[in-house]
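During the reporting period the student researcher (J.K.) took over the structure-prediction task from the postdoctoral fellow and processed the backlog of single-chain submissions. One of the processed entries is reproduced below for the supervisory committee.
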Amino acid sequence: ATSTTPQPSPAQYTMSDAKRAKADDAKKAFVALHESLRDEILNGIKQEYPDFDHAGITHLIKVFDHNCLGGKMNRGLSVLAALQSIKHNKVTAEEEKEANILGWCVEWLQAFFLIEDDIMDGSITRRGLPCWYKVHDIGLVAINDGCILETAIYKLFKTHFKGKHYYVDLLELMIETTWQTELGQLLDLITAPEDRVDLNKFNMSKYKCIVKYKTAFYSFYLPIAMAMLMAGISIDDKVHANAKKILLEMGEFFQIQDDYLDCYGTFEDIGKHGTDIQDNKCGWLINQALKICTPEQRAILEANYGKKDDASVKRVKDVYNALDLPKLYKKSEDESYAKLTKMIEENRDARIPDDVYMDFAKKIYYRKK
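J.K. obtained the following structure tokens:
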């Protein structure tokens, strides 16, 4: 963990059969836990509120299964992976289960955010399926469903972690992370309202602020911070601040990558039809285009960005391609990875092995979905 040998690019990694099998087993164990946690919540409703109509229980089964399963689950799996690295694989069966419970709390938080975000963006598909609000007979009931998923997190916290020394820190971490993400969502929405396209409001400083608060805290810092708390590293310890710097950098690139895939990824790979252009998003591609385009190209972007019709979307993409943004993106990816490895070297702490960060990096850099 203390070596200064440069880290290889994730593109150079080849996972051994044994390591791949171990990763598959970890994911299977994680997924298998979901049903029991879902049922724990639903049985709690039945016990605490015996007069609660059974139709609500039936509905909630669908809420949990449609919205919490089917993704890559990198966020949730990272809690246990990080804990194992920090504790040098000396993790008890009880700790393994607790780490996976916290991982599901992260996944439930993600599901809550995505339900609400899809409604606000008017999205159609998510993970290859209709967005929850687009499912027959759901509609805006989905708003309340998302809130229930978020609140269920605190039910799990109370049941499984109330006696832990880090319980209060865990609560405050989750509340703060949710708050940060909602602030990021606010900036995203007010910077680029769908009905008022104004490209003069876009800039990279604003973009980075949106990304930091909307994506990076909950997707990258939260699961690792949970593992650190489980390992006995206080939230006030400076290693949390160092980890946050590294993980927020990773989170920023992840969103850049997500923006790129929204435009250039296929439905088969990303499981959705990208709508950032139609939704007038203050994304990485449009910000890069605005920095280097000609006046003529800017006029095309201003006339077509934020429009819903296919012809307008194609005109925007034609400008992106003329500016060779895919090449610029690949350069940005290499630069971000180099910066990340340098930050890891400069902020090393014997208690946090490099694998905590590099395992995350291998999952996101150079991905196509």
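The committee noted the following: The longest strand covers residues 125-126.
J.K. will present the remaining backlog at the next meeting.
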